[in-house]
Amino acid sequence: MSEVEGVVEGETIGVWGRMVQSDLWYSFTHSPLAMISALFALVFILACLFAGFVAPHDPFNLASVSLFDSLLPPAWQDGGNISYLLGTDDQGRDVFSTILYGGRISLLVGFLSVAFAAVLGIAVGLVAGYAGGITDAIFMRIADIQLSFPAILIALLIDGVFRGLLPRGLHDEVAVYVLVLSIGLSFWVQYARTVRSSVMIERTKEYVQAGQVIGLPPGTILFRHILPNVLGPVLVIATIQLALAIITEATLSFLGVGVPPTQPSLGTLIRIGNDYLFSGEWWITIFPGIALVLLVLSINLLGDWLRDALNPKLR
């Protein structure tokens, strides 16, 4: 083994060793609920990402979808088909396959909207907390006004405005981007307020004052020195808001203002199945609903564990 390879291997082992010996890893491995939640969320996310290999059918391939197979019950009921484990919908699509493909869209919207909200909220919080004065007052009053409205109402408003401004022919093409923008603009306030409070504490510490004395630019102080020290609460907020973003997307799609039926998310699948719920075809809406509940529950449980693990008062 060469000297360079030995150094690289030593650094890798060192990083892995520090992670295994950290308090966060100890807390995770001693919390069965957190491990079960993480396992379910990981399996679901991977199954959705590789839906083309995991799903037994392609619900968007018209050549493989037959109306003769529509409204088949789950395989264990009379009239069911083993090829369609959870039954089929009104178009003959396999419900299990549509859950995986629909979950991919829900997760995409959730992750992108949380990332957008986090970037916007962190930037606003850093600037407001460090600058103070009139800048802080303006940003926080905007945040207070937005907090007086429910997030779903703000998302509906933003979504409606963009749909009104864009040509009707572009609605389906940009539906996912409009959802990401509307949900992200609904959730940035929590990041901004949390980061602002942490920055107001950090800016009085000696390392910040030392950076100011030696003439470091405010941007360097904010993003290179203060930001790493305020990311703990941000991770907790991001985990919890991922579940909220997925629920918000499902709600908007259920109301008919989310992704188009040609790109069904879990919310769209629940809305489609709701039309057949009282006629006896319960599986079309129940199974996507169960998948949504379990996904959101696992993410929320991970968020609760992360909040407790990063709280020094509970150690």
TrEMBL record:
Domain ABC transmembrane type-1: from-to ranges: 103-303
Entry keyword set: Cell membrane, Membrane, Transmembrane, Transmembrane helix, Transport
Membrane topology: Multi-pass membrane protein
Transmembrane helix among keywords: yes
Organism superkingdom: Bacteria
Main location as per UniProt: membrane
Pfam families recorded: BPD_transp_1 (PF00528), OppC_N (PF12911)
Entry keyword Cell membrane: yes
Cross-referenced SUPFAM superfamilies: MetI-like (SSF161098)
Subcellular location: Cell membrane
Annotated transmembrane regions: 33-55, 105-130, 142-162, 174-191, 282-306
Family affiliation: Belongs to the binding-protein-dependent transport system permease family.
Protein name: ABC transporter permease
Classification lineage: Bacteria, Pseudomonadati, Pseudomonadota, Alphaproteobacteria, Hyphomicrobiales
